[in-house]
Write a structure and sequence with these properties.
The complex is a heterodimer of chains A (263) and B (180). Chain A is 26% helix and 33% strand. Chain A has six helices and ten strands, in the order ααααββααββββββββ. The model of chain A is unreliable at 79-106, 113-143 and 256-263 (pLDDT under 50). Chain B is mostly helical. Helices cover 73% and strands 0% of the residues of chain B. The chains are: A alpha+beta (263), B mainly alpha (180). At the A-B interface, helix 1, helix 3 and helix 4 of A face helix 1, helix 2, helix 3, helix 7 and helix 9 of B.
Chain lengths: 263, 180
């Protein structure tokens, strides 16, 4: 029979919380109590085994899965909505001392309303698909890309253009952005209906695109050109969310529908 | 220091920064996953619990009391989500007999039981309450005080459960073939 006091001391020693006096007292007790000795040995051994168990690595896709399921708009501060037509949404730019954001999501969204092609894209966080782009471009070049929407961007913080070229299968979104400070462009879509297929920054190998499963973020500083390629996975009209962040706060949010232009 | 960093991230997140919560996810994802996994002993369930825990943490971030440690608050969410998942699993499937491993022969030694699988099985032999204190103490190396905050029980109860859990674990591993 082991006294409760010494049971507590055994556990306390295992947890490294006993004083020198308590350890001495316990050693003296264990010397005269074989049952307590056995318990002390077994519990120490088991504690050692448990403390050596390695942590399990979560699967690599779990991070994306978590972030995609967050209701990001919950803490965003919304500002007055634009009154511009839905095809071309207004651009809202916020300025703070450190950086400025400009988003042409509405424009791109309007672009996407005319866009359709089928191709599957596996989301990655650091895309670089020059071969895919090259393949599509070469294929589509022979199919005579049509000229679609053209948008001029003229803001205090950024200037640029957005040009759409499309065929029956591919939509190319050509972005030319010029900004003295860093700006970010967010494009979010339902990846079950519309898939991002490729990206290329024409003047630099540096990767400035961040991709989650169903959202894009382009970061721009200076004068650069980009090409984005989208595909349509379904025949149905798909809603797309536009979110404009400035200074870390949501400035604008709207849901629009994408459509398909029959050839 | 860690607590201060967490508070800064939380403030940024509540101000609308999605990147701040990404940082929180990066920081705690593995820990949260491991707590869930050790409680429920299933990778897929642990994934779901991890995801739902972070979503709940995000949704209720504005209710977090900054006078407490963020990780304690997050752990509490994970433990509750894990217990909910366990209860649901029991209702749907009954006890999983597969978790109970066969008894080992006397010839099998400590080395045999020092496998992760044996430990997992022995842990699953414990009640959830006892298992959780083992997970938080031995796998997460938390103090009695922190465990008490997470489980919302007095420190005295933490010790009592932990000591009981260790002795039950000893008995369970003995059945599985501990040699003396």
């Amino acid at each position: 029979m082991i006294e409760q006091k010494y049971l507590d001391l055994i556990h306390k020693e295992i947890d490294g919380l006993s004083s020198e006096n308590e350890r001495a007292e316990l050693r003296a007790y264990l010397a005269n109590n074989p049952e307590a000795q056995d318990l002390h040995r077994d519990l120490t051994r088991i504690s050692g085994i448990l403390n050596k168990v390695h942590q399990v690595d979560p699967p690599p896709y779990l991070r994306t899965k978590i972030l995609n399921s967050l209701p990001l708009s919950k803490y965003a501060r919304k500002e007055k909505r634009s009154s511009l037509p839905s095809v071309v949404q207004s651009l809202v730019v916020g300025v703070n001392a450190r950086y400025a954001y400009a988003v042409v999501a509405g424009v791109v969204l309007g672009i996407l309303a005319y866009a359709v092609i089928n191709r599957q894209f596996e989301a990655t966080t650091s895309p670089d698909i020059p071969s895919l782009y090259g393949t599509m471009l070469s294929r589509e070049a022979s199919e005579n890309l049509k000229t679609g929407e053209h948008v001029e961007i003229s803001l205090e913080q950024a200037h640029g253009t957005v040009d759409i070229k499309y065929s029956s299968e591919i939509v190319l979104v050509e972005l030319k952005l010029e900004s003295d400070q860093e700006i970010e462009m967010f494009i979010e879509f339902d990846d079950r209906d519309i898939s991002f297929a490729g990206f290329r920054q024409l003047d630099s190998p540096r990767r400035t695109l961040s991709i989650e499963k169903s959202s894009l973020r382009v970061t721009n500083t200076g004068n650069h050109e980009y090409i984005l390629v989208f595909t349509d996975l379904t025949e149905s009209v798909s809603p797309m969310s536009l979110k404009i962040f400035s200074g870390g706060a949501l400035r604008y949010e709207q849901t629009v529908s994408t459509g398909r232009q029959d050839e | 220091m860690v607590e201060q960093e967490d508070l800064v991230l939380i403030r940024e997140c509540l101000s609308g920064s999605s990147r701040a919560f990404e940082t929180i996810v990066d920081k705690y994802q593995k820990t949260v996953f491991n707590v869930a996994f050790r409680i429920i002993n299933d990778h897929e369930d642990a994934e779901d619990i991890t995801q739902s825990s972070f979503v709940k943490a995000f949704e209720h971030l504005e209710t977090f009391n900054p006078s407490h440690k963020f990780f304690s608050w997050l752990y509490r969410i994970v433990v509750n989500e894990s217990l909910n998942a366990l209860n649901q699993k029991k209702r749907l499937e009954g006890l999983n007999e597969g978790l109970i491993s066969k008894e080992k022969t006397p010839e099998e030694t400590y080395d045999e039981i020092e496998t992760s699988e044996n430990i997992d099985h022995a842990l699953m032999d414990l009640t959830p309450d006892n298992r959780i204190v083992i997970v938080l103490k031995h796998f997460q190396n938390l103090s009695y005080t922190d465990i008490g905050h997470i489980l919302d029980i007095p420190e005295k109860t933490v010790k009592s459960r932990l000591f009981t859990a260790r002795q039950l674990l000893k008995s369970s591993l003995l059945k599985k073939g501990i040699s003396r």
